[in-house]
Amino acid sequence: MADSKDSPLRIGFVPEHFCTPLSFAQKHYGLHAILIPFPSGTGHMITAIRAGEIDVAVGLTEGWIAGLGNENVEGDGGYRLIGTYVETPLCWAISSGPNRSDVVSINSLAGGKIGVSRIGSGSYIMGFVLADEQGWLAEGKPFSDTVVCHTFEKLRAAVVDGSADFFMWEHFTSKKHFDSGELQRLGDIYTPWSSWKIVASTRLTQGGLDPRVKDMLGKIDEGVRHFEENQEEAVEYISNHLGYTEADAREWLKTVRFAAKTEGVKQEVVDGCVSTLRKANVLVEGKGIQPQDMVYRA
C-alpha cells in the first residue's frame, strides 16, 4: 500500500448482489477507492489483506473471525473487524449434482466429500456448522474428504463429476443453477449471526483509524441509504450487471437488511460466532487471537 494518505483505498469485495450498496457509494457519493473483486470469497481476501494486496475488505463474518481465531495465526493476524455491513443472517444453499442417486438429502451427506472454496472460507466453516446441527461431530470426522475448488464455477463442476458430493454457497447465487437443472438443492442453512463485516488491515488501525477508512465507512452508509431509497435502481443493477434474474433480485431485497451505520461491530456477535466455531471444532479455546481483540476500538 502506498504510504500517502491521499492514495485510494483498495477494497476487496465479493462480486455478488450484496455488493450493490458498495457500488452505489462509489458511483453516487465519491467513494475514493479501487474496488477489487474476489469471486472466490472471504478466504481469498484474508490471504490478500495479509499480503498487503488490499487495504480493506467486505466479507463473511465467520470467515473473518475464523481467520483471526485460528490457532496457527501469525503476528497480529493482519486485520481487524471495523464495521458491520449486513445485519441479516446469510442463507447458504446446500447443493449437489443433478444425477446423484446416492446424494438425495442432507442426511446422506454424513461422511461424504465436501467441496469448499478454500480452507477457512465461509463454505468450509459452514460445513462444520452443518455437521454440528446434524449431530455428525459426535461421530468423529464428519466428512471423508475436503475438496478445495477455489471458485463457485469449479465447485459446481466438482459435484457434477462426483469429485465432491456437495457444497454450500449463498442461496440466490445458487438458485439460477437449480432453476437450470445444473444443480440439485438439498436444503438451506442459515448463519446464526449477522452475515457480512468490514475489516481493515492492521496497518490502517495503528495509532487510530486511518482517516480514509473513516471516510469510506461514511460513504458506504450513503450507499446503503441510496440502496434503500432506490430499490428499482438496485434491481436494475443486480439483474443487468451481476447476472441475477429480476425476479430473484426482487425476492432477495425482501430478505436482506444492511446496516444503516456501518462503523462498529457488536462484541456479542463476535462472541456468539466464536462460541459456535469452537463447538464445531473450527476454533480451539485459548488459541489464536481472542474474541475481545478481534474488533478495532478507538
From TrEMBL:
One GO CC term on file: periplasmic space
InterPro entries in UniProt: Ca3427-like_PBP2
SUPFAM superfamilies: Periplasmic binding protein-like II (SSF53850)
Keywords: Signal
Predominant location category: periplasm
Protein's UniProt keywords contain Transcription: no
CDD domains for this protein: PBP2_Ca3427_like
Keyword Signal: yes
Domain Ca3427-like PBP: 92-189
Superkingdom of origin: Eukaryota
Localization: Periplasm
Family note: Belongs to the bacterial solute-binding protein SsuA/TauA family.
Name of the protein this chain belongs to: Ca3427-like PBP 2 domain-containing protein
Organism: Stachybotrys elegans
